[in-house]
Amino acid sequence: MTAAAQHEIGETVLETERLRLRRFRPEDADAVFAVIGDEVAMQYYPRKFSWDDAMAWVERNMRRYREHGHGLYAVTLKGRDEIIGDTGIVRQLLAGEPMLEVGYHFRRDQWGHGYATEAARACMEYAFRELGAEKVISLIRPENLPSRRVAERNGMTVERELAHAGLPHLVYAKKREDHGKA
Asked: Would you call 171 exposed, middle or buried from its count of C-beta atoms within 10 A (0-12, 13-18, 19+)?
């Protein structure tokens, strides 16, 4: 891979007051596994994730960048290169309707600092400003109270409940016209 291509893969996409969101690189699989391999952090997912799943996670997002121009991004604290989680915008198909979802996953040792809220807010702003989204959603299991609080702090409200991946999920949503109220 050329140096220019490598830079594009790992480029910074968004910055917040405390965080840097950059595209994943192939060597990020270990850092991703530190998040998705943690059974407590991922307890609301229907299965356990392996290291191979972490590599597939990175590859899937790199493919999303090529195909859609966005995906989940590696999150680091400004001034540090260590990945503490991921946040981004992914395409979902709900009841035949295409949607843009804000997703977030963080290492447990980084919980409680407001990073998920800060990163998700930046991604929502990006979806409205750069992707022209009329609405952004987050799919959250009803019992996942921490993720629900993140969505609510960012001005999202429950739009409906549905089965997704065979499990009940709440569809949190925020419309463009409501943007700026959180």
From this structure: buried
Close Cβ partners of 128 (under 8 Å, ≥ 6 residues apart): 136, 176, 179
Q: CA dihedral in degrees (80, 83, 84, 86; nearest 10)?
A: 130
The CA dihedral of 4, 7, 9, 12, to the nearest 10 degrees, is: -140
Residue 133 main-chain phi, psi, to 5 deg: -65, 140
3-178 CATH pick, 3.40.190.10, 3.40.630.30, 3.40.50.2000, 3.30.565.10:
3.40.630.30
The amino acid at residue 41 is A
pLDDT digits (tens, 9 = 90+) for 76-131: 999 998 999 999 999 998 888 899 999 999 999 999 999 999 999 999 999 999 99
> Do residues 162 and 173 make contact, with C-beta atoms less than 8 angstroms apart?
no
